[in-house]
Amino acid sequence: MTTRVIIVDDQAMVRAGFAALLAAQSDIDVVGEAPDGAQGVELSRRTRPDVVLMDVRMPEMDGLEAARRLLAPPPGVTHQPRVLMLTTFDVDDYVYEALRAGASGFLLKDAPPADLIAAVRIVASGDALLAPSVTRRLIADFARQRPATRGKPALRLKALTQRETEVLTLVARGRSNTEIAATLVLAEQTVKTHVSRVLTKLDLRDRAQAVVFAYESGLVAPGE
């Protein structure tokens, strides 16, 4: 199955480089490019890609606002692509807010080519790009700046079983399903089932939102 991708970045050289790299992959089809968020949203509505590579800082409309519009579309618009944020900086408030809005992760622009290709495939598969330690640091840094919300997010935790709470805690600490399975002495498929139930019960899109939720609800504290 071919993954359809669009690239939204205000630098033409970046767009061209990423497009050439991804188009060379047999399972990835670059179906369009846009120089700013507004045109990126319009292009996404028209081409219906699986994944949008979205730069954070752009003129006219930045990547955060564009991600919000794509991930919370107006009535009548049913298409919601996966959004992978691109940034020059490893700690960026815009990226944290994009994760809260439902973006599936982020990637540094100077990451190796193989990482970009892998990131597109990971996000297209429905998973979140949370493996790099820089992502965990970014979320922890901004969670530290924002006191845990003790209201509705914390109350929503009561919907989880003890095991599901344990799994969410480990997800928030950046553990993979394999690592969680080893820690809790469970089969990896069982962990996947628990993660799926957590996302469903908490009405979260993917692991990225689960990590943010865990910090904001106070389940996990920065630095743990």
Overview in brief:
This protein has 224 residues and is of the alpha/beta class.
Characterise the protein shown here.
The chain is an alpha/beta fold. 51% of the residues lie in helices and 12% in strands. It has 11 helices and 5 strands; from the N terminus they run βαβαβαβαβααααααα. It has helices at residues 12-23, 37-47, 63-71, 93-101, 113-124, 133-145, 152-156, 162-172, 177-184, 188-202, 207-216; strands at residues 3-8, 28-34, 51-55, 82-87, 106-108. Strands 2-1-3-4-5 form a 5-stranded parallel sheet, with helices on both faces.
Individual helix count: 11
Q: If strands are numbered along the chain, what order do they take across the biggest sheet?
A: 2-1-3-4-5
How much helix, percentage-wise, in residues? 40-55%
Order of helices and strands: EHEHEHEHEHHHHHHH
* SSE class: alpha/beta
Tell me the major beta sheet. 5 strands, parallel
Q: Over the alpha carbons, how many angstroms does the gyration radius reach?
A: 17 Å
Mean pLDDT value? 85
Taking the alpha carbons of the first and last residues, their distance comes to 40 Å
The poorly predicted ranges are none
Instruction: Tell me, briefly, the overall form.
Output: globular
The portion of residues forming beta strands comes to 5-15%
Strand element count = 5
